[in-house]
Amino acid sequence: MTAQLINGKEISQQRLAKVAQAVEKRAADGLHTPCLAVILVGNDPASAVYVRNKKLACEKSGIKSLSYELPASTSQEELLGLVVELNENSKVDGILVQLPLPPHIDSQAILEHILPHKDVDGFHPYNVGRLAVKMPLMRPCTPKGVMTLLEAYGVDPKGKKAVIVGASNIVGRPQALELLLARATVTVCHSATQNLSEEVGAADILVVGVGIPNFVKGEWIKPGAVVIDVGINRLENGSLCGDVEFDAAKERAAMITPVPGGVGPMTIATLLENTLHAAELHD
Ligand code: NAP
């Protein structure tokens, strides 16, 4: 069996087109143009690429973007000052602080200063808590993007066994909450998990976000599983690969996301959906 490819690029373009339509309709109705403020601190090349792609997607969908590119030497107080200023700016709907931040900055403290209704990344504990109690407001972009992909391909998690490998605040943990909300039976694996291959082998839906190239072996995967690879790893030859051994996994899975072109574009599309949602909350 060769798995069906889950085309995140195509689904993300459809979602961005819907955002663009909604932005146009807002203008026709005399409502303000949604505005996203993007803060980049330092010169991490991967972060610079992510920020550029986010700004390009804003342009394509008619969302205004404001860019703040700060030197790596920026202090915690300076960055907090900018966040507070953007919180108070009524023209700004969403605030995104690109992670990772330089090591001298306490990322969590910065994220907790973003007003929850402008927290378009969905990382504020208030938004994580709302997701946990089944009352989501701003949903973390990558896990929500994964749910959009599953829905687009007719995969209903209800009653399925979902296994997540990775338990970070931005991928694994909120993914577990999203899948629980969708009525899956959820297992979350991390670096202390025993018998990982057995856990993975039980998954009807497998989501992997670990950050280690080809970490999940194709032979671990249950035949017919849906495999979502969140990992983005740059190899020495410059190419990108995921956390799942793609060539072997596609021979066992029913559906699988490629890297690139799977989850990555969905994260950006969801960010813009969240920015539109933030603008609606401000109306
Ligand atoms: P992270 O913060 O480093 O978290 C990695 C997680 O993997 C942790 O929970 C860790 O467990 C777990 N882990 C590490 N080694 C393991 C092992 N041997 N067995 C089982 N679990 C293990 O990474 P992240 O920020 O979540 O990112 C993960 C990957 O997703 C990266 O490749 C990143 O580039 C990618 N990513 C992609 C997108 C996208 O839009 N597609 C968005 C975000 C991230 P512990 O909790 O025990 O430490």
TrEMBL record:
Keyword Hydrolase: yes
InterPro entries, per the entry: Aminoacid_DH-like_N_sf, NAD(P)-bd_dom_sf, THF_DH/CycHdrlase, THF_DH/CycHdrlase_cat_dom, THF_DH/CycHdrlase_CS, THF_DH/CycHdrlase_NAD-bd_dom
EC number, as in UniProt: 1.5.1.5, 3.5.4.9
GO molecular function, one term: methenyltetrahydrofolate cyclohydrolase activity
GO terms under biological process: L-histidine biosynthetic process; methionine biosynthetic process; purine nucleotide biosynthetic process; tetrahydrofolate interconversion
UniProt keyword NAD, yes or no: no
Catalysed reactions listed for this entry: (6R)-5,10-methylene-5,6,7,8-tetrahydrofolate + NADP(+) = (6R)-5,10-methenyltetrahydrofolate + NADPH; (6R)-5,10-methenyltetrahydrofolate + H2O = (6R)-10-formyltetrahydrofolate + H(+)
Signal peptide: none
Function: Catalyzes the oxidation of 5,10-methylenetetrahydrofolate to 5,10-methenyltetrahydrofolate and then the hydrolysis of 5,10-methenyltetrahydrofolate to 10-formyltetrahydrofolate.
HAMAP family xref list: THF_DHG_CYH
SUBUNIT field: Homodimer.
NCBIfam families, A to Z: PRK10792.1 (NF008058), PRK14186.1 (NF010783)
Protein name from the UniProt record: Bifunctional protein FolD
Phylogenetic placement of the source organism: Bacteria, Pseudomonadati, Pseudomonadota, Betaproteobacteria, Neisseriales
